[in-house]
Amino acid sequence: MKMVFRWFGEGNDTVSLDQIRQIPGTEGIVWALHDVPAGDEWPMDKIMKIKEAADKAGLHIKVVESVNVHEDIKLGLPSRDLYIDNYKKTIAKLAQVGVKVICYNFMPIFDWLRTDLHKEMEDGSTALFYEKAMIDNVDPFDLVKRINENSKLTMPGWEPERLQYLTQLFEAYQGVTQEHLWANAKYFLDEIIPFAAEHDIRMAIHPDDPPWPIFGLPRIITGQDNIRRYLQLHDSPYNGLTLCSGSLGANPENDIVSMIHEFADRIPFTHIRNVRVYENGDFIESSHRTQDGTVDIAGVVKAYHEEQYEGYCRPDHGRHIWGEECRPGYGLYDRALGIMYLWGLWDAYQKAAAAEGAAAK
Q1: Were both Cys, which of 97, 247, 248, 306 would link to 209 (CB 3.0–4.6 Å)?
Q2: Residues with a known catalytic role
Q3: For the stretch 100-116, what's the b/e string if a residue is b when 16 or more beta carbons lie within 10 angstroms of its beta carbon?
Q4: Are the CB atoms for 131 and 116 separated by under 8 Å?
Q5: How many Cβ atoms from other residues are within 10 Å of residue 232's Cβ?
């Protein structure tokens, strides 16, 4: 397992590269050009600026999250070929600087959804929270306004320049079913995966967050069966999965451990985090510790260890603790604590496996 840490760039993140490199066992950053609109070709000078900063800090840039998929591709519009061509040009540039994994998603309009970015927990920390009843009754336009009022930093998936066209986007998705989305995803994969393979970059689809349809929009990456179907759309090791235990774990019926064992060779990148799911369907992002949430994080790490996982891992979201003012979900302290918890589990499994091996001799 290779540990990495998401970083949003100079002037767009409260966490510095110097701080990241002090987290034990952390080798690289997970990055993107967040000021480049979805569908545009990434400029090489901006890519190089990230690489130079990371090189100076002794961190690699092998994982990108995300090269966003333009809505026209998801909708299957004639213009999709232009945006797919731009996507290929970006892949070629990223290969030049050593990128090995591109995380992306195929969620219509919204990349993720929460109702409260700073829900207070019992210990006084705050975390991202999803209130099911509110989503069932809220106007999505009001929710967009609320989300973008919470932070001066960019909110991936909620970019104002994209969401200002929210009315047109909802109109465009009228009549678009899950099967339409499946067909459009296959078209995208058939174009992108062979090109990514030529450049030795593994594409890794991120599950839908949360893993169910919202606002009447279709979603297709919600559980084990449709992840299997997605990976079979283009059966190649370069068509992979970003297995996010938090996104999938919001539905307690999802068996994350089973997914790891089934898809291990197709998971170049994983997000490991915990969520506490309530009986009414609400959930909050807890600490990474197994006992604090609903996801069996100890079992998740054990499964990766049993599979001798060599892909990239990040601790994903964290709580806001010790008075830290940061991007919602992306502070330094709780994610660093999360990394140390994950390493503690990994090291314990390593030691136990070594002892078992010695005893068997």
Answers
A1: 247
A2: 206, 244, 271, 316-317, 330
A3: bbbbbbbbbbbbbbbbb
A4: yes
A5: 9
H helices, E strands: number in the chain: 14, 12
Q: Is the model's pLDDT at 159 over the cut of 80?
A: no
- Nearest C-alpha neighbor of 209 from the set 126, 104, 125, 300: 104
pLDDT digits (tens, 9 = 90+) for 77-90: 999 999 999 999 99
Question: What is the structure's pLDDT at 357?
Answer: 79
Average pLDDT score over residue span 139-163: 63
Q: Residue 92: enclosing H or E segment and its boundaries?
A: helix 80-96
The full DSSP string for 4-57 is EEE---TTS-SS-HHHHTTSTTEEEEEE--TTSPTTSPPPHHHHHHHHHHHHHH
Distance CA 253, CA 259 (A): 12
Phi, psi of 63 (to 5 degrees): -120, 125
Q: Which of 100, 73, 65 is nearest to 242 (CA)?
A: 65
- Rounded CA-CA distance 65/99 in Å is 11
